[in-house]
C-alpha cells in the first residue's frame, strides 16, 4: 500500500564503507618476507577490483583515514548484497586482513530522492541519473563520510511535513549544494533498514577544506539547520597502489 506522502526513491549500487585499523604491532613483528607476501596478495586482489570497475560491475576506492577511528577505509559499490558481502569476505581471507581490525562499517544503497524530478519522465533513462546511481568512485583527492538522520521531534518532524514543503526545502538544499559544483562530488546513500542511521553522506574533493566549508554552510540551510541530525565524521586521503605500498613500508 502506498501513501501519498511517501517519496518514490531511485536506488543504484549497494555500498559498503569498511573502516579498518592496522594492527601496527603485529605488522612490525612480521618478517619482511611475510609482509611482502601479504602486500603482493592484497595488490592482486585490488587488480581484480579494478577489472570489475572497468567492466562497470561496481566500483571500489581505498583511502588512508585520519584520526584514531581508522587507518584504512574501503568503499565498495556492488549491484547486490551478495556481491557486496563477497568482496568483504574476499578481503577477510587475505593475509593482510589478519593485520587489520575492523573499526566500523556502514551498509547502504545509493539513492536519489527524486524530489526535483519532472513528472512523466523515466529518470533512470537519463545518463546523468545513471552516472549518479552507478558511479565510478574517485581515485584521487580526499573523502569525507558521515551518517545522518532527518529529525522526528515534536514540531520538527521531517516525516510529518507535507510533500510540497519537503520538496521546497530540498530545492533550497540543492541550491546550497550547487555552489559547490565542480568542487565537491556528493554520494547520498539510503540506509533505512540496513544500518543505524537513515543516510550515509560521502563527499569527495581535491581540497579537504571544501568539506569544512560545505558542511558549515549547509548548517544554515533549513533542511540541515532544523532537521539534520549527524553521526560521526571521518576524513581520508585517496590511496593508489604506490601510496599504499609507502604507507605499509616499515
Ligand atoms: C555537492 C553538493 C550537494 C548537492 C548539489 C546536493 C543536492 C541534492 C539534491 C538535489 C537532493 C534531492 C534529490 C536527490 O538527488 O536525491 C539531495 C538529497 C539529499 N542530500 Fe544533498 N546535495 C549536496 C550535498 C549534500 C550534503 C553535504 C549533505 C549532508 C547534509 C549536511 O548538512 O551536512 C546532503 C544530504 C542530502 C540528503 C540526506 C539527501 C536525501 C534527503 C531526502 O530526504 O531524501 N547533501 N541533495
Report the C-alpha radius of gyration, rounded: 19 Å
Q: Major sheet: size, sense and barrel closure?
A: 8 strands, antiparallel, barrel
Provide the helix percentage: 25-40%
Secondary-structure element string: EHHEEHEHEEEHEEHHEEH
CATH architecture label name: 2-Layer Sandwich
The counted number of beta strands is: 11
What ligand species are in this complex? harderoheme (III)
Low-pLDDT segments: none
Integer average pLDDT? 95
Q: Report the CATH superfamily.
A: Apc35880, domain 1
Instruction: Tally the helices.
Output: 8
* Order of adjacent strands in the largest pleated sheet: 1-3-2-11-5-9-8-4
Count the domains. 1
Separation of the first and last Cα atoms: 59 Å
What's this, in brief?
InterPro entries: CHDC, ChdC/CLD, Dimeric_a/b-barrel. With 250 residues, the protein is of the alpha+beta class.
Amino acid at each position: 500500500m502506498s501513501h501519498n506522502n511517501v517519496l518514490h526513491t531511485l536506488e543504484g549500487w549497494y555500498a559498503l564503507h569498511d573502516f579498518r585499523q592496522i594492527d601496527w604491532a603485529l605488522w612490525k613483528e612480521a618478517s619482511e618476507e611475510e609482509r611482502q607476501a601479504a602486500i603482493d596478495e592484497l595488490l592482486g586482489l585490488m587488480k581484480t577490483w579494478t577489472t570489475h570497475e572497468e567492466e562497470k560491475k561496481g566500483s571500489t576506492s581505498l583511502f588512508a583515514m585520519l584520526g584514531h577511528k581508522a587507518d584504512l577505509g574501503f568503499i565498495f559499490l556492488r549491484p547486490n548484497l551478495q556481491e557486496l558481502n563477497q568482496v568483504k569476505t574476499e578481503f577477510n581471507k587475505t593475509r593482510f586482513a589478519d593485520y587489520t581490525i575492523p573499526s566500523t562499517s556502514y551498509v547502504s544503497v545509493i539513492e536519489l530522492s527524486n524530489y526535483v524530478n519532472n513528472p512523466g519522465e523515466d529518470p533512470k533513462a537519463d545518463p546523468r541519473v545513471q552516472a549518479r546511481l552507478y558511479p565510478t568512485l574517485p581515485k584521487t583527492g580526499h573523502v569525507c563520510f558521515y551518517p545522518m538522520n532527518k529529525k522526528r521531534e515534536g514540531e520538527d518532524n521531517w516525516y510529518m511535513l507535507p510533500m510540497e514543503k519537503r520538496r521546497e526545502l530540498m530545492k533550497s538544499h540543492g541550491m546550497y549544494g550547487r555552489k559547490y559544483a565542480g568542487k565537491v562530488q556528493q554520494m547520498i546513500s539510503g540506509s533505512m533498514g540496513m544500518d543505524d542511521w537513515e543516510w550515509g553522506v560521502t563527499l569527495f574533493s581535491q581540497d579537504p577544506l571544501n568539506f569544512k566549508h560545505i558542511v558549515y554552510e549547509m548548517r544554515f540551510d533549513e533542511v540541515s539547520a532544523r532537521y539534520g541530525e549527524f553521526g560521526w565524521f571521518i576524513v581520508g586521503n585517496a590511496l593508489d597502489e604506490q601510496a599504499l605500498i609507502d604507507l605499509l613500508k616499515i
